[in-house]
Amino acid sequence: MKEAWRTSVENLDILRTSFHFSVEIGRWAQVVHSSLDFKWTTEKRQSIDNAAGDFIRSLHFDAEDAFHRPPVYLRHVSSSSGEDYLIVVLHHALYDGISLPMLFGYVKAAYKGDPPSTTQFHTFSRRIISLEARATDYWASRLKDVHPWAFPRRVPSTPNAWRASKAVNAPKETIDRFCRRYEVSAQSIAQAAWAKVLVISSKHLDVIYGQVVSGRTMAGSENIIGPVFVSIHPAC
Amino acid sequence: MRTAFHVLLTLSQFPVVFEVVVNTASDTIELRSAVAVNEEVVKVVEQLIGNFESCITYLSESPNEDISLPDVGNQLTSGWPVHQPRTQEAEKPADPRVVETIISELSAFLRISAENLREESSLLSLGLDSLKVTTLSHRLRERGISIQPIDIIRAGSVRGVASASVRESEQDTSSQEESVSELDQLLWQDLPLESIRLDSDDQVEITAATALQAGMLSQVISMWIRGVYQVLTGPFS
């Protein structure tokens, strides 16, 4: 298993990517290394309980230099009851939801000694940035007279992230039936609901908000292991 | 001005209502149909819609203003202005191979005989909705035709899709690509190579991070949100 992961890190440039911030330019750079930085550790413990939490608490990412090495960490945990676990810690700058099963599929193929050829993320990232530039120009021009509005905080200001939620009491069958009737997806309904929340909260009829898109519709992006998600599309 | 014609047909035991809406303000003609859900009837309706489209296209694209159509066509079209095609999409010749591929994919995907599909066939009339266009976009990409789902809806017709996909390949992105290269150059100049390399043999390649990568890196540093990390565990042997 360890060798399968080593082969994967050797072959996939996104797993050999570190990040550096240029103060002068005000941009993050991603740096692909030819040298291998393979951070595999082993741990024996009484129980597997809390192993993942303990592992991630031992890692620190509160400064820019924490990313000067590729943020990929692997830990093999053996419990005294004879169980073996592998804990994989990856920063979200290295993957998206579609990548994960592909990454594990790649490791599995490497384990069997037959890793497939794959398109590297960095051959693609320039295209993503180029698209971002074009989209930014477009939306900046389109929204030039729009004024930002801050969502009112319901809790006192805190340095940490905060989250609020409210359960929707509609059963899944009702939502599915509604979607079929109007030929829309559940996501469309959620977006319409969010737009309505914004309209009511802001007391403005014209609202705009962002929607993260996968970016996997770009030609050639289907099999790339990496954070392909292109951008956040404004929805009006 | 909107003018509507209603036609009630009875196909087998199923009633079918057609509504033709002529909107002179937006220069469009819409054919709407309400039909009981029955595959046989739907096939007949699709054929009728296809024939209707052919008539309309013939009317709108024919250089000869003195048009005579057989049967029902004359009654429906009396007094209508004859328009030349308005949009560039309609004028632009589509690559016949691309059109052929799109028709064959559409035919397999929507289970409609390819004979009933024409360049000017309206995709929405054929039953393509916002959910189906995503699948169609994937299927077309597998056949080497790259087009976003939203552009399929905008294109409206087989010919429109063919033209839009051609345009995508011809799209000029050179100015943006130049600025991306310039950005990479600046990063190369600004970042000290000796502090970037992991060891003396390390060969590095520097490119700008994408916007969302940058956003998540900055977010983690400022808030150290553990949730941005994916912790994956699983037994293995």
Care to describe what's here?
The complex is a heterodimer of chains A (236) and B (237). Chain A is α+β, with helices and mostly antiparallel strands. Chain A folds into two domains: 2-118, Chloramphenicol acetyltransferase-like domain (Chloramphenicol Acetyltransferase, 2-Layer Sandwich), CATH 3.30.559.10; 125-152 and 166-235, Nonribosomal peptide synthetase, condensation domain (Chloramphenicol Acetyltransferase, 2-Layer Sandwich), CATH 3.30.559. Chain A has six helices and seven strands. Chain A has helices at 2-11, 51-57, 99-111, 122-142, 172-182, 186-202; strands spanning 17-22, 27-33, 40-45, 72-79, 84-90, 209-212, 232-235. In chain A, the strands form three sheets. A three-stranded mixed beta sheet of chain A has the order 3-4-5, covered by helices on one side. The model of chain A has no long low-confidence stretch (mean pLDDT 86). With 237 residues, chain B is an alpha+beta fold. Chain B has a domain at 1-84. Chain B has ten helices and five strands; from the N terminus they run βββαααααααααβαβ. A three-stranded antiparallel beta sheet of chain B has the order 1-2-3, covered by helices on one side. Chain B is elongated, with a radius of gyration of 27 Å. Chain B starts with a strand and ends with a strand. Strand 2 (27-33) of chain A pairs antiparallel with strand 4 (204-208) of chain B.
What's the gyration radius of chain A in Å?
Answer: 22 Å
Gap between N and C termini of chain A, in Å?
48 Å
CATH topology assignment of the largest domain in chain A: Chloramphenicol Acetyltransferase
Low-pLDDT residue spans of chain B = 70-91, 224-230
Tell me the quaternary state: heterodimer
Number of helices of chain A: 6
Q: How much beta of chain B, percentage-wise?
A: 15-25%
Question: In which range does the helix fraction of chain A lie?
Answer: 25-40%
Tertiary shape of chain B: elongated
Structural class of the helices, strands and pairings of chain A?
A: alpha+beta
Strand order of the largest sheet of chain A: 3-4-5
Helix run count of chain B:
10
Q: What is the CA-based Rg of chain B, rounded?
A: 27 Å
